[in-house]
Write a structure and sequence with these properties.
The protein is mostly beta strands. Helices cover 13% and strands 41% of the residues. The longest helix is centred in the middle third of the chain and has 19 residues. The radius of gyration is 34 Å and the shape is globular.
Length: 728
């Protein structure tokens, strides 16, 4: 029996090959003709990555449906690790083998071997992008984890009045149909949540036609999904049964405080059997968490969903429902909404009663962080022979005696380090102990160092950021003169929070937002007042010019994290002046797409800026680009900087500045024609036809000349721009 399959794609390929008279049973009469393998098709790198191992329903092929059997991780060295749903792992190697059809055609396939035993195989030629079909007759398939949209393929309806209809294809492309039948399109990628730090979770990132992410929705482990949501944005699968097979519904909106599976996060014990432990950890949302139940040799793993049933009176009754990894219902507990939640029961008789185990997990994270930071300060102080913890009694040359009574031996220091730190930081500090400490006459001595050491400044308060189930970050609000702010990553380990790593420096360095996309703010913005002359030009490369009646400032947009009034980490976009770490203003990004309003915060308050609506044939950016080229061709001088002024008649003034930001000339332009006037000598400018001057343009320029009173006039009054004859 052949190891492989007769896939439709292979049959199609074979049908296109020349007909041969020999039968499969008569292959001794002919030498098989080997198909030339294509190196790009048989390259193992095509398989490198993570794949879902999907198996067909019993007795059927994949067209009838599949179930998830686990994950296969494939490495560049042709080895693989298969992890099934029970957490068991199987490893092996992948070889390129060949299957023979009719005794004549050798078709290459990837053969998975666990030792000498054949496991599965798939043809090297993919059946569709990111999918390989397995088994005889299509008994399974490998689906790329980062390209598997099967769970959300189909038609969806947005849950608002006259909601839009989303149609999601198997390759991640989607179309959106509006109530007026206007259609738009976009695509989905699977990865980390957009504009967020990578926490290891997977998200469906929805991109619009312009390639910008407008929303991220968490990826679940379910093979079919009938509900997609993030915040107030909710999609429901059309014509889907709202109940699961156990009769429970998924909530269609967010609920009041306390009604979430997050209330269960922590460690619990059975009130009637203290040897049984239930561990609940963070899931993909507040309404989906993970659990592990351990009772002797019995272990159950799965997910907890917040769901509801309808009572006879039609009211919703909410439940925490536990499902094991294969989707089977394990246990259910009614929701009380009690805060804090320290115990919960199943059934009216309380047959199963779990009680929360109290530990540092539920303690105030700011207090914990401050305590660990201060402990860390003491570790470094002792190890670096700080006079606060040591005294020089002259007993051992180059060593001083440790006077802190907590540290009488090297093991005391190591134990203190183990209680304060974890992972590589702990290991590194413990290794250093043997180099800097010695014991003599029942006392501990530390080597003199004569160098400074880092110290967290905790007296001004702690900001807790990125809190998760087993980790969080903490940042000192204040700073010390020597090292600046300090940031620590804390991880929960063995019933205690410990410092995993730390760094220090300026706030903007520690809290910089990596790879923030500012393209949504690119454009021309002007002050939303009748008399305002402030113009903000944000370029797609993150540079900006900011112009008011006093002149212009150039710089770069930088995204950093700040701490909001509620203690949450928020993104702030700062306008940083060129060459200096000086913020001239900042604004908070919004979730609006497109963004047409920003509130620029600077000394004295907040100013409302609105996006300039491009009204002419040429955009402001295009006019500036054309102006630089035109000016350089005519004068031989290339402006180092340009910035625009939008006038009340929608005409545009493009102002030229040198490397020091000093203004030396300008063009006044009509955005419909690209025609205007040079300020220095009143000569005609025709950007579409650079170099042409004609009296015939005079009429066109009549309207453009008037802009000097409202646009460039403000710069003249500030003394930033002078006519050439004034300079002479």
């Amino acid at each position: 029996m052949k190891k492989m399959i007769s896939c439709l794609t292979v049959l199609t390929m074979l049908a296109a090959l020349p007909t041969v008279a020999a039968s499969a049973a008569d292959n001794t009469a002919y030498e098989p003709i080997a198909v030339q393998d294509s190196a790009d098709v048989t390259d193992i790198n095509n398989l490198v990555g993570q794949w879902k191992y999907m198996a067909a329903l019993e007795g059927m092929n994949i067209t009838a449906g599949v179930i998830n059997n686990g994950i296969i991780d494939i490495n560049p060295d042709s080895t693989y690790i298969y992890t099934d749903l029970g957490g068991n792992t199987h490893s092996g190697v992948i070889k390129v083998d060949h299957d023979t059809f009719g005794g004549e055609y050798n078709v290459p396939f990837f053969a998975f071997y666990e030792g000498d035993e054949f496991f599965i195989g798939c043809y090297c030629e993919q059946n569709e992008p990111f999918v390989y079909v397995l088994g005889n007759g299509g008994t399974g398939k490998l689906v790329s984890v980062n390209h598997d949209f099967s769970a959300i393929t189909g038609e969806w309806e947005e849950q608002v009045d006259d909601g839009r209809i989303f149609n999601i294809s198997a390759d991640g492309a989607y179309t959106v149909t509006y109530p007026d039948n206007v259609t738009d399109y976009g695509f989905i990628k699977i990865g980390k949540k957009a504009f967020s730090e990578d926490d290891g979770s997977k998200w469906y990132n929805f991109y619009n036609a312009n390639g910008m992410v407008w929303i991220s929705i968490p990826v679940t482990d379910s093979e079919t999904v009938d509900d997609l949501r993030e915040g107030d944005f909710i999609l429901k699968r059309k014509n889907a049964d709202p109940r699961n097979k156990y009769g429970y519904y998924t909530p269609d909106k967010y609920l009041e405080a306390g009604v979430s599976t997050a209330a269960l996060i922590g460690t619990w014990t059975d009130a009637k059997n203290d040897s049984a432990v239930l561990i609940v950890t963070e899931g993909i949302s507040l309404y989906n968490s993970n659990f592990e139940y351990i009772n002797g040799n019995e272990t159950v793993k799965g997910v907890i969903n917040l769901e509801y049933i309808l009572t006879q009176s039609g009211e919703k009754e909410y439940w925490y429902n536990f499902y094991n990894n294969d989707g089977t219902f394990w246990n259910g507990f009614s929701v009380s909404g009690e805060i804090p939640l320290n115990d919960f029961f199943s059934g009216q008789d309380g047959a199963t009663h779990f009680v929360r185990l109290q530990d540092e997990k539920s303690a105030d994270k700011k207090e914990i962080a401050a305590a660990r930071m201060n402990d860390f300060n003491e570790i470094l102080a002792v190890m670096n022979a700080s006079p606060q913890y040591t005294a020089d009694n002259g007993e051992i040359e180059d060593y001083v005696k440790v006077t802190d009574s907590r540290f009488a031996s090297i093991s005391d220091v190591k134990n203190f380090i183990s209680d304060t730190c974890t992972e590589e930081l702990k290991d590194e500090l413990i290794r250093d102990c043997d180099d800097c400490f010695i014991e003599k006459n029942g006392s501990l001595y530390v080597k003199k160092t004569g160098r400074s050491f880092f110290s967290f400044e905790t007296s001004y308060g702690i900001a807790v950021t990125d809190p998760a189930m087993n980790c969080f970050s903490a940042l000192t609000i204040g700073e010390n003169d020597l090292f600046g702010n300090g940031k620590a990553e804390l991880r929960y380990s063995e019933g205690r929070w410990r410092i995993k790593s730390y760094e220090y420096g300026e706030w903007r360095e520690l809290m910089a937002v990596e790879n923030f996309d500012i393209s949504g703010f690119a454009g021309i913005w002007y002050e939303d007042t009748k008399t305002g002359v402030d113009i903000l030009d944000i370029r797609t490369d993150g540079t900006f010019s900011y112009t008011n009646e006093y002149g212009s400032t150039f710089g770069t947009l930088e995204a950093i994290y700040g701490i909001g009034e509620d203690g949450e980490k928020v993104i702030v976009i700062e306008l940083v002046r060129n060459g200096d770490i000086i913020t001239i203003a900042n604004f908070y990004p919004t979730s609006e797409n497109p963004c047409n309003d920003i509130y620029l915060n600077r000394e004295g308050g907040s100013i409302h800026f609105v996006r300039h609506a491009e009204t002419g044939k040429y955009t402001v950016e295009k006019l500036m680009e054309m102006s630089v080229k035109d000016y350089e061709e005519k004068t031989g001088r290339k402006p180092a900087n340009t910035h625009p002024m939008i006038n009340y008649d929608n005409s545009v003034t493009v102002i030229f500045s040198d490397e020091d930001g000093k203004t030396f000339d300008a063009y006044n332009l009509d955005p419909d024609t690209g025609i205007g006037e040079r300020f220095a000598d009143k000569s005609v400018v025709n950007l579409p036809q650079t170099g042409i001057n004609s009296l015939a343009l005079a009429g066109t320029l009549a309207g453009a000349s008037a802009i000097t009173l409202l646009g460039i006039g403000a710069v003249i009054r500030s003394g930033k721009l002078r006519k050439k004859e004034d300079e002479e």
